[in-house]
Write a structure and sequence with these properties.
The protein is mostly beta strands. 0% of the residues lie in helices and 54% in strands. The chain is built from no helices and eleven strands. Strands 2, 4, 5, 6, 9, 10 and 11 form a seven-stranded mixed beta sheet that branches. Strands 1-3-8-7 form a four-stranded antiparallel beta sheet, with no helix packed on it.
């Protein structure tokens, strides 16, 4: 059983930056692939970014088209933490952001394939 706790959300003006953190406990974090999703009011939860292991501590990263070039996912296995650096934020980035981990290698953008989820952190971008 893995517990995930997100932090770092808040209110920011358009064009600003935030860094989200997701601390893991209760399992061997390095064995899991990590991802970030978000859910805006009235919308389905959508994929944002993922870091998938290809060998040991080497990861390949994936991004939704809407955030590519602005967001960066990273992880520190020594700290059992995954991060999402968000730059050039836009009002349409407003959502609750969730981190999740999955044991599978495939399906980085499919929320149904993730095994554990955090409780979410609110990000609000004002125009």
């Amino acid at each position: 059983q893995v517990q995930l706790v997100e932090s770092g959300g808040g209110l920011v003006q358009a064009g600003g930056s935030l860094r989200l953190s997701c601390a893991a406990s209760g399992g061997t974090f390095s064995r899991y692939n990590a991802g970030w999703f978000r859910q805006a009011p009235g919308k389905e939860r959508e994929f944002v970014a993922a870091a998938t292991s290809i060998s040991g501590s080497t990861y390949v990263t994936y991004y939704a088209a809407s955030v590519k070039g602005r967001f960066t996912i990273s992880r520190d296995n020594a700290k059992n933490t995954v991060y999402l650096q968000m730059n050039s934020l836009k009002p349409e980035d407003t959502a609750v952001y969730y981190c999740a981990v999955r044991a599978r290698a495939e399906g980085y953008s499919d929320r149904r394939l993730y095994d554990y989820w955090g409780q979410g952190t609110q990000v609000t971008v004002s125009s």
